Every structure is written in C-alpha cells, then in structure tokens.
UniProtKB/TrEMBL annotation:
The gene is pdxH. Its cofactor is FMN. Pathway: Cofactor metabolism; pyridoxal 5'-phosphate salvage; pyridoxal 5'-phosphate from pyridoxine 5'-phosphate: step 1/1; Cofactor metabolism; pyridoxal 5'-phosphate salvage; pyridoxal 5'-phosphate from pyridoxamine 5'-phosphate: step 1/1. The keyword Flavoprotein applies. Its EC number is 1.4.3.5. Residues 159-201 form the Pyridoxine 5'-phosphate oxidase dimerisation C-terminal domain. Keywords: Flavoprotein, FMN, Oxidoreductase, Pyridoxine biosynthesis. This is Pyridoxine/pyridoxamine 5'-phosphate oxidase. It comes from Roseovarius faecimaris.
Length: 201
C-alpha cells in the first residue's frame, strides 16, 4: 500500500473527496462544487463545460441537467465521462473518470423540488443547447410555464441526474517548486479493490 498521510489519508476515495469539498466550502468564494465535465460527441470530438456537483455518494458523483442538452445526448450515446474539481484557494484538484448512469425517480424529484422556483420554471421552459430566437422568446416561454404550473411545477421528463461511477480518481495537491503530490486510485469496476499509486508531479 502506498504511504499516504495528511490530506491524502483515508481508505475511501469518496470520503476523501467529500472532505476536500467540505474544506473548499469554507474557502472558495463562489461555487466550491463547480466542476468541469468532459464528454465526447458522436464523432469522438471532446466537449467540456462547467456544471455543479450535487452529491458525492458512496459509489459516485452526481450532477443534474437537461437530458436533451448536448451533454445529455452525448452521455446517452457514450456513457463515459471525466470530471475535474479545482480549488484555487486550497491549491488542490480531484480528477475522476468512469461510466455514467441516469439518476431519476424519487431522488431526482427530491432534488428538483429543492431548487428555487425560478430555477425549476426555467428548467421546464429551456430547450437547453437548442437554437434560441431571442431572450424575449425565452422569457415568454417561462411566462407560459409559470401560468401553467404556478408555484409547484413538477420535474419534467427531460430533466434529471447522472451519476459518474469512477474507475479512476486522482487527488492532486500543489507542492513547493512544482513538486506536486499526486495519488491515483484505480479499479476495473465497482466490485473490484482500489489500487493506489503515487505519481510523479
């Protein structure tokens, strides 16, 4: 077993990631849960954008989106992705790669209901990633949705979550003279044991 201590200590990478995220919540000015999500399109061309991590579960990292968006369609076509969380204030980052599955049903309903009313109405009205004639047209659609659903809009079928189940998690921390500390956890699948390796900077 690779020797680890301090911020890298622990036997569960999900717990380490949660601990780092909690620490970032104390120091990052905006959105400590912001992460870059990378997917590939039908031609294999990479695509990356910022999304918000909403949960670190015992077996994966959960975020929510419009299933009809570019990322939603790309994940449906190729259910593999990578994310990176970078915290400048802590000088740390976490990189994750693995397979992706949908998060729907009661779990997605509960999260949707926890969002602000305006965010819920916007999620229903938006045809994310599709061409938009004007902002005025978008606001008109939001007004129609508001008139239809009022203050308790249901989660639309086109909106829900994804869980990234890792086969690789890398923890990185800044080091003096750019001699950074890096530990990568790898496994073949959820039923397999993690192998931990220290990497060169």
């Amino acid at each position: 077993m690779t020797e680890r201590d301090g911020i890298f200590s622990g036997d569960d990478p999900f717990e380490i990631a949660q601990r780092w995220l909690d620490e970032a919540g104390e120091s990052e000015v905006n959105d400590p849960n912001a992460m870059a999500l990378s997917t590939v399109d039908a031609d294999g061309l990479p695509n990356v954008r910022m999304v918000l991590l909403k949960a670190i579960e015992p077996d994966g990292f959960v975020f929510y989106t419009n299933y009809g968006s570019a990322k939603g369609q790309e994940l449906e076509a190729n259910a593999r992705a990578a994310i990176v969380l970078h915290w400048k204030s802590l000088r740390r980052q976490v990189r994750v790669r693995g397979s992706v599955t949908r998060v729907g049903g009661a779990q997605a309903d509960e999260y949707f209901a926890s969002r602000s009313l305006k965010s819920r109405l916007g999620a229903i009205a938006s045809r994310q990633s599709q061409p938009l004639e004007s902002r005025t047209a978008l606001m008109a659609d939001v007004a129609k949705v508001t008139a239809k659903y009022g203050i308790n809009p249901p989660r639309p079928a086109h909106w829900g979550g994804f869980k990234l189940s890792p086969v690789e998690i890398e923890f990185w921390a800044d080091g003096a003279f750019r001699l950074h500390d890096r530990f990568v956890w790898r496994r073949e699948g959820a039923e397999n044991t993690w192998e931990i390796t220290r990497l060169h900077p």
